[in-house]
Sequence to fold (1224 residues):
Amino acid sequence: MSSHTATSQPTGGIHWRNRFGWLSVRLGLGILCFLWLLPTVGLFIASIRTEEATKTTGWWKALTPLSEFVPVRSHTDAEQLDDGRYVIRGSLAEDEGVQGSELGETFGIRSNLAETFTVGETIDLGEYISSRAGLTLTINEDYTYEISSNEPIELSRGQNIFIEVTTPPSFTTEHYRKIIVADADSDFGIGRAFLNTFTVTVPATIIPISIAAFAAYAFSWMNFPFRNFLFIVVVALLVVPLQMALIPISRIYNTVGLKDTYPGIWLAHTGFGLPLAIYLLRNYIGGLPREIMESANIDGATHFQIFVRLVLPLSVPALASFAIFQFLWVWNDLLVARVFLGILPENQVLTAQMRSLLGTRYEFLHLLPAAAFISIFVPLIVFFSLQRFFVRGLLAGSVKGG
Amino acid sequence: MLDLIIWLLEGILSPFVSVLEVIFDPLVVAMADSPALQAVFAILFGVGALVLYFWGTNAFIDWILGDQVSWIIQNRRKRERVRERIRPWFFVGPSLILLFIFLVFPALNTLDLSFRNETSTEFVDIGNYSWALQDPGFHESIRNNILWLLFVPFVSTTFGLVIAVLADRVRWESLAKSLIFMPMAISFVGASIIWQFIYDFNDTGEQIGLLNGILTALGGDPQGWLIIEPWNNFFLMIILVWIQTGFAMVLLSAALKGVPEETLEAARIDGAGEVAIFFRIMIPQIISTITVVMTTITITVLKIFDIVYATTGGQFGTDVLANLMDTKIFRETDFGRGSAIAVTLMLATIPFMVWNIIRFRREEKFR
Amino acid sequence: MKKLHLFVILSLLTLAFSAMTVSAQDDPLGILGDDRFAWDSLAPFEGLDLGGEDVLFFGPWETEDLEYLNNVLAYLNAVVTNGSVTYVGSGSFEQEIVIQCEGGNPPHLAAFPQPGLAADMAKRGCLSSLDDETRAYINESYAGGEGWNAFATYPDPEGENQLYGIWYNVNLKSLVWYVPDNFDENGYEIPTSWDELIALSDQIVADGGTPWCIGIGSGAATGWPATDWVEDIMLRTQPLSVYQDWTTNAIPFNDERIISALDTFAIIAKNEEYVNGGTAGILTTEFQDSPQGLFSIPPECYMHRQASFIGGFFPEDVEIGVDADFFYFPAIDPTFGNAVLGGGTVITISNDTPGARAVLDFLMTPIAHELWMVQAGFLSPHKGINLDIYSSDVLRRQAEILLGADTFGFDGSDLMPGAIGAGAFWTGMVDFIGGASSQEVADTIQNAWDAIKGE
Fold:
């Protein structure tokens, strides 16, 4: 559209200005998108790095090799040589902790690295560590080590050798695997939780939209007493804190037998979502051109017919927007589901399942980034598929004063 | 009062639930082995009941007050008038009933609790409100809430609008919008974890928070972003802006698509610049949606507690009313004071509602 | 004839197979018949009729802990008839139990990680009180039984004191964690007195290191790790009676004895050279991440004071007892002997049925404690248990500290009313480390206490 406008401009000056506008639109949007995406990238990287890497280096350094000192604990069993000396032999390169890393030249013998040595040196350990008197340590060029002494060697834990290593960037799918595989053999694993979440989410999205659409139409185009007053009360109800509603509603559910049932939770989500739904839809439906309604009225259509045949199709963008929000809200909800679906394992939704993987005191918090990405997947699909309803021109040709 | 309402609802709802149980229990038992089948059935049932209600009630009043059953009201005109007077209530009825049960009734209940002691066993008059008036934590929360209200709705809406307008002009609109929208899809708890990777503070050694990473790379000293009062409040607000901009963008983008192309085209031919078109044509056309977005985000801000709860827990001078309420009710089980804070929150919306009423009056006049 | 033969073999096989699966379900730990366990304490539940109840037991334990507890309960389920018990956990137990109780939908049993919340629930009439028989049994069979009973005795809705729960799965807080290699390499000795502890800290600073890692971040509960420090110091500088009066506010929070404890804590916490990251580090580090510095190279710190459960947050490859170990947080004033600070989980009945009572009775038996002990980190004050069953030496040593204490103090902030112990005290500690003086902080907390007593 804009390119068409640009080419139709006769003079070069304006052409340049449009070119500049063309560029700044893209640049501005690009920068905003980058800023918005940046935190999520951090989360994504955390979801594919090891817990230790995430806790020790910045996520933006995930692609640079990591240089660090790692401890290798020596063996403790000494053998006596022919010359009477006692030695402990081993190889740094064979230690599990350095697998996959490149060994460097430098090493230390105390964790504070107050002094460092070069591979090939022989060190009198007693000089630095009082409890190691009489021991010498040699690290050979091939990273084999030798601890020797003239006396029998008594090491309860082995000598730590801190060798410099360079670890290439590495990523892992371990977190994802753990979440998906957790309880996979039980009846109440992630599969069941997905199913439960769908069973909650789909009706809890459709029901409030339908109910609210009828109400929004009535608030916009039908005449009845207290119409504006009732509508403003509906909007004001947006502010009622969810926490205040849970206990009284639980009591009602207990008495009428809706507790721990799907209809119970659909109704709860519907009730909590209705104010926003009615508010958004009333704004949109109320903004539809009066001419359309009047011409339909003249044709003798009833309100029900106008609503179903005319208003609903025209309101698709608004319906889609609310559907996205309500879907997200229900999908990410933990509290309402726990309260109204109950705490039994077979009733758990995805969020509850994910939360329970994190441990009593969040010991497994490092699983959360992966969990967040697993649960973000479906809402994004919903967003993408509803995107196509945000289209121009639904009202084309029916505009007043155009 | 609570008991009376429960008693009433029980009388109304119980028969329905019992009938449903009689019908569906055998089905549920029959499908006990297949949760998937149960799920499909449940979804079909839920949606089906809805269609049945709206279509059914409409058909019913058309029939009972229609020309076939003319004996109820003899006069045709009158019959029509009664019919059209009743019909709106069938349209708004389900909404009003659900809103009453799920929101009005809890709000009234909260009002009642706010005049009682912590176990709701005794009336304490306005004791909880006078406590709030002199509590330093309450003052701090009010101050912070005002900061949030000044910052978040305006900034989110502005960003949302700018992005909606820009995205409308590029081919990768869908992708751009998805990126901005993505934070909305991440739960609040997930969001706080994400922002830890931005705000994290480590006095010595490697930084794992991006801000301090940049700062130290430039030679500065790392900062504990979330403990510097009062600026830490803004760092928390940025998290909400990051989330809510997607909300604003989706609604404003849908509204912009409704601005007729002919109008824009006409303005361009008249030689108006893009900036002028934006301010003189687009904004007036979507002003009602902007109001809706601002109002909704304002109320979200009033109710915000997840972000504060999961990051600072309200410490370091960052407490807000909704978090204070949650603390009172669930950690201190003081229902009286918690409810008084909830009532304060509800009262705080009155100015925004007045603004909405004024706008509606004006809009209806010009429609 | 041949057909019959096959049939017999098939049924025998089926029988054998079902016997095998049943035993795996009834004996998930594969220890039936192991005579180290107090199986005789399970005998009274043999054939007990639960009256068709599915007993629901709700608590804060998740993932591994959840599995451990359900394994314990499997042994009860195997012997009772006509009903069973299931444990279900939640990460937001504290919030959900309030909603369930007030919403009239409580589980049969609830395990409270903080007695303060249990006391609140008792006051609201959500919990059922226990009888004198239970009280007598705990008195007799728990080490320090009277104390444990006292921590589970709360006013009922009428204000009468009643016993509401029994203790199951306790933890020990007076521990200082360290890396033995780091101590060895630098010739550091384990301090046995407060003076030695400070001397060691100075030594570490002189050697160019940082002695302590402290982190009090914990989301909504930010500040609690610091309250443990103050409680540990209170127990080491004041008699138990003063400690107890402090938790009930019989002694005001701004009493000089408490202010002095805060100042003692400040000797370590407010010394920027002593703590990794200084006071800003204390405020911004999550408690889960705070022990991390012990294991970095070079070490960011050498000591970390935290409860027994912190081992769960050490890096995966750290073997407790080898790569990391603990010592007893030493006495300050020797007149008060070895004081130990601990916490625990109190099991209460929130929906009173015969089944719930049976499960509670079971959880008081030595076998119920031993079955968790053998699986993982679980400390028990029960005197009837066999210490050999502890799954590791580390746990056994912790149990010995617990059972050998001269004074046992229960986590004070947990005993205080929620508005203080889970509110003003936490906030106060944040302010204190942030720079406020001990007097200011103590005054503020006392004001908050006066405000709740005001009604």
User: Anything to note?
Assistant: Chain B has 16 helices and no strands. Chain B touches chain A through 119 residues (CB under 8 Å). The CA atoms of residues 272 and 342 of chain B lie 49 Å apart. The domain at 131-366 of chain B is CATH 1.10.3720.10 (MetI-like fold).
